[in-house]
C-alpha cells in the first residue's frame, strides 16, 4: 500500500532508481522496527498520519544516505543523456515530463539537490535544513540559490531542445 508512495519520496533524493529502491527498503525496515512508537489512538485520519510519519522516516533515511555518500566521497553524479520525446502541448515547459523534471533535479550536485529538495519540496526552513544536514544557515541559503540557478539553466536548455524537436 505504501510502496509507490515511498518510491515517490525517495526518487526526489536519489541519483538512480536503484538507489531510490534501497532507500525505500531501508525506510520500510525503520518503519516496521519502530511501528510500536506510532500512537494509533491519537489520530483521526490514521492513514494520513501514518503517511506523514513514514515520509519523515524516508526523508531522514535519504539524508543519512547522502551523508554516507558524502563521507565516503564515492558518489559522483554522472549526468545521463536526457530522454527527449515529442509532445503536442503548446508551450516548451509543458513538454517536460515528470521524469525529465526529476532528471533535472538529479543533475544537481548532491549538496545542492538535498537543500533544494528539503526547501522547495518539503517546505523546511534554512534553520531546519542546517540542523538536519549539519551545515550553516548561510551554506543552506547559498546552496539553494546555486541550485535554483542551475535548475533554471537545465530547464532552459531542455525547453530549447524540445522546441526544436
What does the model show?
- By secondary structure, the chain is mainly alpha-helical.
- The protein has 2 domains: 76 residues, Orthogonal Bundle (Rna Polymerase Sigma Factor, Chain: A), CATH 1.10.1740; 88 residues, Arc Repressor Mutant, subunit A, CATH 1.10.10.10.
- About 11% of the residues have low confidence.
Brief rundown of the structure:
67% of the residues lie in helices and 0% in strands. The protein is mostly helical and 165 residues long. Helix 1 crosses helix 2, helix 2 (17-33) packs across helix 3 (46-72) and helix 5 packs across helix 7.
Say how many strands there are.
0
CATH class of the largest domain: Mainly Alpha
Largest sheet: none
Enumerate how many helices there are, as a single number.
Answer: 7
Q: What is the element string, with H for helices and E for strands? A: HHHHHHH
**What fraction of residues sit in β-strands?**
under 5%
Terminal-residue CA separation: 39 Å
The CATH homologous superfamily of the largest domain = Winged helix-like DNA-binding domain superfamily/Winged helix DNA-binding domain
- Count of distinct structural domains: 2
Amino acid at each position: 500500500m505504501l510502496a509507490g508512495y515511498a518510491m515517490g519520496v525517495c526518487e526526489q533524493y536519489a541519483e538512480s532508481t536503484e538507489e531510490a529502491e534501497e532507500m525505500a527498503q531501508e525506510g520500510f525496515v525503520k518503519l516496521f522496527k519502530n511501528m510500536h512508537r506510532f500512537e494509533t489512538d491519537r489520530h483521526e485520519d490514521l492513514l494520513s498520519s501514518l503517511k506523514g510519519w513514514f515520509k519523515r522516516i524516508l526523508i531522514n533515511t535519504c539524508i543519512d544516505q547522502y551523508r554516507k555518500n558524502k563521507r565516503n566521497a564515492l558518489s559522483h553524479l554522472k549526468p545521463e543523456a536526457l530522454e527527449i520525446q515529442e509532445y503536442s502541448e503548446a508551450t516548451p515547459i509543458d513538454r517536460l515530463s515528470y521524469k525529465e523534471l526529476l532528471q533535472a533535479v538529479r543533475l544537481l550536485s548532491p549538496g545542492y539537490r538535498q537543500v533544494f529538495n528539503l526547501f522547495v519540496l518539503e517546505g523546511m526552513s534554512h534553520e531546519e535544513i542546517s540542523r538536519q544536514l549539519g551545515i550553516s544557515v548561510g551554506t543552506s541559503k547559498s546552496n539553494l540559490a546555486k541550485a535554483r540557478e542551475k535548475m533554471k539553466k537545465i530547464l532552459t536548455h531542455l525547453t530549447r531542445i524540445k522546441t526544436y524537436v
